[in-house]
Design brief:
It contains 7 helices and no strands. The longest helix has 20 residues, at 30-49. It is mainly α and 123 residues long. The protein has 2 domains: 9-49; 57-114, lambda repressor-like DNA-binding domains (434 Repressor (Amino-terminal Domain), Orthogonal Bundle). Helix 1 (9-22) runs antiparallel to helix 2 (30-49). The protein is elongated and about 60 Å long. This is DNA-binding protein. InterPro entries: Antitox_HigA, Cro/C1-type_HTH, Lambda_DNA-bd_dom_sf. Residues 61-114 form the HTH cro/C1-type domain. GO terms for molecular function: core promoter sequence-specific DNA binding. One of its GO terms (biological process) is regulation of DNA-templated transcription.
């Protein structure tokens, strides 16, 4: 087992290829140990160079609506009325803490996504 740090894209790509070749390794084997170590190295490299920003709260809500096949009218029970639903989804009004709690409970969207800052276009 010759393991080196991942320092650049070339190292990253070759490590990914090596991991792919080890995917069928039997637990407890030397190959499996190598797989675990390389996976950790890849995760660290990706966390440093391939960070994915969480979406703004409104995009997270719209994405969940799409996933669940929901329409704006389906969110009235969460926001209170259809005008407020429209204002929120069109970024004319900010989410309140109570709305965030309701969205989290009703749509199972993580608080981390709902608490991100976002701008209102005309504010």
């Amino acid at each position: 087992m010759n393991i080196k740090p991942i320092r650049n894209e070339k190292d990253y790509e070759s490590t990914l290829q090596r991991v792919e070749s080890l995917m069928d390794a039997a637990p407890g084997s030397e190959a499996f140990d190598e797989l675990e170590i390389l996976t950790t190295l890849i995760e660290n490299y990706e966390a440093k160079y391939y960070t994915i920003d969480t979406p703004d709260p409104i995009e997270a809500i719209k994405f969940r609506m799409e996933q669940e096949g929901l329409k704006q009218k389906d969110l009235v029970s969460i926001f209170g009325n259809k005008v407020r639903v429209s204002e929120i989804l069109n970024k004319k009004r900010k989410l309140t803490l109570d709305m965030i709690r309701n969205i989290h409970e009703s749509l199972n969207i993580p608080f981390e996504s709902l608490l991100n800052k976002y701008d209102l276009p005309n504010a």
